[in-house]
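Task: sequence design from structure.
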């Protein structure tokens, strides 16, 4: 194991290859990092940092996307009225963003809900960044946000923000479907 001594503490750096790569003309993520001396470490760190962070370089960070399955329809502001407000069945709306980690985390559970309840509930996905009017109108402050709609209206107390487990999501949907079948 290579060690680097700093003024404040002893830092141990295991010899692992990078987990996340960045595409760039001036930098190769597979460049080997020799930490056998403090000089090599600091010259690698500072020169590579300048190259990666340079405004005119052609570096790009990996882009993530929230994929929709056949059961989950991704809609936008223009489709919202037809898909949600004029729907003849209850609709679970999921507000997401490509950069949102918790959104990617619950994506499999949302796909499961869409498949499991496809005969009783429609599930739609709305991209936060591409639909600012809806975000403002429905006051979506945290992502992912789940809002249930029935007969063109937001169901009171149905709003949920943040990551949710599959079990809790099932309880949430079951309670909602039970409450609307009784009403």
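Answer:
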């Amino acid at each position: 194991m290579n060690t680097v001594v700093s003024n404040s503490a002893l830092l141990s750096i295991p010899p692992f290859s990078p987990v996340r790569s960045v595409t760039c003309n001036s930098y190769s993520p597979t460049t080997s990092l020799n930490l056998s001396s403090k000089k090599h470490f600091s010259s690698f760190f500072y020169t590579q940092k300048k190259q990666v962070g340079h405004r005119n370089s052609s570096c790009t960070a990996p882009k993530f996307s929230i994929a929709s399955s056949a059961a989950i329809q991704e809609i936008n502001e223009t489709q919202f009225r037809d898909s949600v407000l004029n729907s003849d069945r209850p609709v679970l709306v999921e507000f997401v963003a490509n950069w949102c980690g918790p959104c990617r985390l619950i994506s499999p559970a949302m796909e499961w809900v869409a498949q499991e309840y496809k005969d009783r509930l429609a599930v739609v996905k709305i991209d936060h960044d591409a639909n600012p009017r809806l975000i403002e109108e429905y006051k979506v402050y945290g992502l992912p946000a789940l809002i249930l709609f029935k007969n063109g209206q937001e169901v009171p107390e149905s709003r949920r923000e943040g990551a949710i487990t599959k079990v809790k999501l099932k309880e949430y949907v079951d309670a909602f479907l039970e409450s609307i079948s009784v009403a």
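The helical segments are 38-53, 77-85, 101-116, 132-137, 166-182.
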